[in-house]
Amino acid sequence: MPRLRIRYVGTVQGVGFRPHIFRLAKAHGLAGFVNNDPAGVIVEVEGPEERIQAFRIESVGKAPVLARISELVCESIQPIREKAFRIKESERADSVDTQVSPDAATCPECLKEIFDPEDRRYRYAFTNCTNCGPRYTIIQAIPYDRPYTTMKKFTMCQKCQSEYDDPQDRRFHAQPNACPNCGPRLIFLDRAGKRIPGDPISKTIEMLLLGRIIAVKSLGGFQLACDALNQDAVKTLRSRKYREDKPFAIMARSLDQIEKYAIVTDTERELILSPERPIVLVPKRKEPQLAEEVAPGQKTWGFMLPYTPLHHILLQESGMILVMTSGNMSDEPIAYLDDEARSRLDQIADYYLTHNRPIYIRCDDSVVRVVEGRPFFLRRARGYTPRILSARLPGKKSILACGAHLKNTFCLARSGQVIVSHHIGDMDNLETLRAFEQGIEHLKRIFKIQPEAVAHDLHPEYLSTRYALSLDLPRIGVQHHHAHAAAVMAEHEIQGPVIGVSMDGTGYGPDEAVWGGEFLVADYMDFDRKAHLCYIPLPGGEQAIKEPWRMMAIYLERIYGDEFLNLDIPSIRALDPGKWQVLKNAVEAGLNCPLTSSMGRLFDAVSAVLGIRAVVNYEGQAAIELEMTTEKHVTSGYEFSLINEGDEILIDPLPVIEACVEDLRKRVSVGRISARFHNGVAEMITEVCALTRDQTDINEVTLGGGVFQNMILVRGTKSRLEDQGFRVYLPREVPINDGGICLGQAAVALRRMT
Ligand code: ZN
Ligand code: ZN
Ligand code: FE
After folding, report:
1. Near ion ligand 2, which residues have CB within 5 Å?
2. Looking at residue 98, what is its pLDDT?
3. Which ligand sits closest to the CA of 159?
4. Which terminal Cβ of the chain has fewer Cβ within 10 Å, N or C?
5. CATH architecture of 532-682
6. CATH fold of 3-87
7. CA-CA distance, 216 to 225, in Å (whole number)?
8. What residue spans define the domains of the chain?
9. How far apart are CA 190 and CA 503, in angstroms?
10. Does the pTM exceed 0.90?
C-alpha cells in the first residue's frame, strides 16, 4: 500500500478544511492523518493507489466554500501500515504562512437553523459555522484561534463545545461558534443609549415601519437603515448624513425581491448570491420604483442581499427593503466601536440595534458592477479582504505600498504575493488617517509581514505620502498614472512595455502639474509620457473639482474670449458674470491655478456646458450624470485635434467643446451631444494609441484611472481599440479607480528594488 504526503497551502485554516479531509479519507477508506501546520495543512494518506488518487482530486475539487488552495505539493513516502485516519492536534509555531479568510455570508445550512423554530439557534443572530461567518473583522492576531478573536470573552456552553470538538461536525473548530445560551446578544438602544426592553429585532422593525433611522451593528461596522420605500425617511437620512445626492445601497431579502425593481443578468445574479455578498449595481426598472431619494439621478440601484443572520432575520420578518448605508457622516470612515458609534452617529440615528460582539477591524461593504460579463470593482472591501490576489508581483521582497488620496487602499506584499487592504476612504481627515494606520498595523500583524521598503505617490501633501515619509524605511515614489498602468500590468502578470492609458481626475506630475489625461509607454521600471491633454489652468485648485462651471468657463474663454458670456445657451445664461470676473482675475494673477491635463475635468466642463452640473455634491457627480444622459445608438463623435510637439502628442479638446456648443445652439439634444462627446474621447484614445504603436511597435494597452468607471467610455474605448488589433487589459480584482493605485506602486517599487 503506497503512502502519500500532501501539503495544502492557501486559505485552508479556519474554513473547515480538516473535517473535509477527515470525511473524505473515511469515505475512501484511507488511513493516515491531517494536521494544521504553520504553512497550511498537511495530510498523509495510505491505501490503494486509485483511492489515494481519487482522494487527492476530491480534496481540491470538493473543498469547503471558503477554502482557497494556492499550492499543492505531493510526495510519496514510506508506508507505516496505519489502520485508521485521525485529526492530529494543531502545532503552534511562530511563523504562520496560512491565510486569514475574508468574512463570509451566512451559509444555507446555518440559515435553515435560524429559521427552524425547533432548532436551538432559532432566530439567533450570531449563528455561524466553518463555512460562514465573521473572520477578518474579528481576528486580532494569528493563528486564527478563538482566544485571538473578539469572541474570546464568550465561553462556549457544553453543546457548542462538543460541536467545536467533533471532527464530524460542521462547527469543528469554528472559532466564532456560539448559541443563544453562551454567545453574543442583541440590544436595542434609544438615542440616549438607554436600553429598550423587548425583542430587539421586533422593536427595530416597529421603528423602521414608523420611518425611523436605525444604526445597525453589522459585520465590519455600523450601517444606517431605513425604509427604502419611505421617501421622508430617506430624505431625513440624507439631510442628517450631509449626503445630498450620492446613491445609497439597499438590501432586499431575496433575489426575487431585487428583480422586482432591477433588471439582473446571470453574472450579476451570481455576484449578488456569492458568499462575498457585495453591493451590485444593477439597472433600475421603470416600474415599480423605490423612493427616488435612494439614488437620485441614477439609472442603477446598488442592491445587496443579507449577509449576516441579523440581516436575514430583520429582512425576512419585516418583508421590507432597507436602505443600508455606511454608518458615518459623509467623508468619514464607517463607525465600528460602540461608544464611537454612539457619539458619531448621535445626530443621525434614532435608535441603535447593537450587540456585544466587538468588531476588531472596520470593513465597508464592497461595490461591484458587471462589465462585459465580468465583475468590475468600484470598491473592494468586506468579503474580499484580506484575500491574496491571484497575480504574483515582479519581486519577492516585502513591501508596503501606501496608495493615493481618494478611495485609498494600501497593500502589503511578500514573496510575490500581495494583499490589498479594505477600502479606507478619502484621506482628508484625521479619522481616515487613523483608520489607514490601524489597517496597516493589523494586516502586518495577521500576515506577519515586516516591510523592507515603502512605496508612495509623488504628491508631497497626500497624507498617505506623508505617512510613508515618516517611516524609517527605504522609500520609492511612484508617479500616479504610472501606478495606474502598472496595477493593470501586475494583475495580468505582463511585463510590458505597454501603452498605459490613464484617464483620471487628479494625479501629481513630476512637472508639478495636475496630470490626468495621459498616454504613457510604461514597464514596471519606468515610463515615457507620449501624449496628454493640453494643459489648462485649474482655477481655484480643489475648488474647481467641486464646481465644474469653473472648468466650463475657462475652456469657453479659451475658445471665445470674454465673448463666451454672450453665448445663448442655458449654462451660460445661468452663470454669474461677477463670479467669472473673480475667477478670471485669479487665473491672470496665477493664484491657486495649477496647470492640468485632467480628463476628469474635461468631463466636468462638458457636463457643465450641457447644463447638467455646475456644482457637484460628491466626487465624480458631473461625469456620472453626463454618462446617465447619454443617448444610445449614436455613432458620430467630436474630433480632438492632435498636435505634435517634439516627442509628445498634445491633445487639444477645444474643438470638441466648440462642437458641443454648436450642437447646443442647433438644439441637438443633450443626450446626443453627450454620446458624441463619449464617442469622440474613445476615438481619440484609439487614434493616439495607434500613433504610439506606429512609433514603438507596442500593441498592448492598459486602461486605468477613475474616468474609466464610466461604462460607456470603457466599452467604447475597448471595442474600438480591439477593432484596431490592440490587446486591451482592464483591472480584474482591484478597482480601476485610485483603489487600485497601491498595487501598481508595489509592482513598480519591487521591480526597482531588484
Ligand atoms: Zn454556516
Ligand atoms: Zn452555546
Ligand atoms: Fe487616479
Report:
1. 157, 160, 179, 181-182
2. 64
3. 2
4. C
5. Orthogonal Bundle (1.10)
6. Alpha-Beta Plaits (3.30.70)
7. 7
8. 3-87, 186-367, 532-682
9. 47
10. yes
Gap from CA of 353 to ligand 2 centroid (Å) = 22
Q: Give the whole-angstrom CA distance, residue 615 versus residue 538.
A: 15
Please give the pLDDT value at position 94. Answer: 47
Predicted confidence at residue 95, as pLDDT, reads 47
Kindly report the CA angle at 552 between 681 and 737, in degrees rounded to 5? Answer: 50
Residue 159 Cα to ligand 2 middle (Å): 6
Using alpha carbons only, how large is the chain's radius of gyration in Å? 27
What is the separation of C-alpha 104 from the centre of its chain, rounded to a whole number of angstroms?
16
Look up the CATH architecture of domain 186-367.
Alpha-Beta Complex (3.90)
Residue 357 CA: distances (Å) to CA of 221, 371, 748: 12, 38, 41
The answer to which of 163-172, 555-564, 703-712 has the lowest mean pLDDT is 163-172
Closest by CA to 313, choosing from 108, 104, 111, 178, is 111
Q: How far is the CA of 736 from the centre of ligand 3 (A)?
A: 8
Distance 144 CA to ligand 1 centre (A): 17
618 Cα to the center of ligand 1, angstroms: 38
Report which bound ligand comes closest to the CA of 177.
2
Ligand lying closest to the C-alpha of residue 169: 1
Which residues are placed with Cβ below 5 angstroms of ligand 3, an ion? 504, 738
Q: How far is the CA of 134 from the centre of ligand 2 (A)?
A: 17
Query: Burial level of 192, CB count in 10 A (0-12/13-18/19+)?
Result: exposed
Percent of the chain with pLDDT over 90: 85
pLDDT tens digits for range 644-698: 999 899 999 999 999 999 999 999 999 999 999 999 999 999 999 999 999 999 9
| CA 556 to ligand 3 center in whole angstroms | 26
